[in-house]
């Protein structure tokens, strides 16, 4: 079985245009490619977790779990969706509070980063990154 990194690379090569010198410049109003989609999706998910209630109701907990589960069924990158479904079986969403959800999501994102050979994020900084802004004031 191919590794996730290899599968994603193969999927990208099928969907990408000619990368030679004669390649046409990509317009800014094109459909999202896999990398743009992933970046945007992680931004949405982390922002949702950052604004999730500290004390969610049972309905909010259920809704968030359903949202993430449904995302794993309808996510446009089929390999990514398959990997997410497998991960959710092993480590289902933790929705008890904003902190718990944000930390669970950060760990999930780091698992994906490791599979893709990307840098791991320090989850102790997740609220600074996605909710409060950096302590140096650069987000003010």
UniProtKB/TrEMBL annotation:
It is found in: Mitochondrion intermembrane space. It is an enzyme of class 1 (oxidoreductase). Keywords: Disulfide bond, FAD, Flavoprotein, Mitochondrion, Oxidoreductase. Residues 23-32 have a biased composition (Basic and acidic residues). PROSITE patterns: ERV_ALR. The keyword Lipoprotein does not apply. It catalyses: 2 R'C(R)SH + O2 = R'C(R)S-S(R)CR' + H2O2. Pfam families: Evr1_Alr. Its cofactor is FAD. Residues 1-32 are annotated as: Disordered. Its EC number is 1.8.3.2. GO terms for cellular component: mitochondrial intermembrane space. Residues 30-130 form the ERV/ALR sulfhydryl oxidase domain. Its main location: mitochondrion. Gene3D superfamilies: ERV/ALR sulfhydryl oxidase domain (1.20.120.310). GO terms for molecular function: flavin adenine dinucleotide binding; flavin-dependent sulfhydryl oxidase activity. PANTHER family: ALR/ERV, FAD-LINKED SULFHYDRYL OXIDASE ALR. This is Sulfhydryl oxidase. It comes from Callosobruchus maculatus (Southern cowpea weevil).
């Amino acid at each position: 079985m191919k590794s996730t990194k290899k599968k994603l690379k193969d999927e990208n090569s099928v969907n990408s245009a000619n990368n030679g010198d004669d390649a046409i410049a990509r317009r800014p109003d094109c459909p999202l490619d896999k990398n743009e989609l992933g970046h945007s999706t992680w931004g949405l998910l982390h922002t949702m977790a950052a604004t999730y209630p500290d004390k969610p109701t049972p309905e909010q907990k259920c809704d968030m779990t359903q949202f993430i589960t449904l995302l794993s069924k309808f996510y446009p990158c089929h390999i990514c969706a398959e990997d997410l479904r497998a991960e959710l079986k092993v480590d289902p969403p933790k929705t008890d509070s904003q902190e718990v959800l944000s930390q669970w999501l950060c760990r999930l994102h780091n698992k994906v980063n490791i599979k893709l050979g990307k840098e791991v994020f320090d989850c102790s900084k997740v609220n600074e990154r996605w909710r409060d802004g950096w302590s140096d004031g650069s987000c003010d």
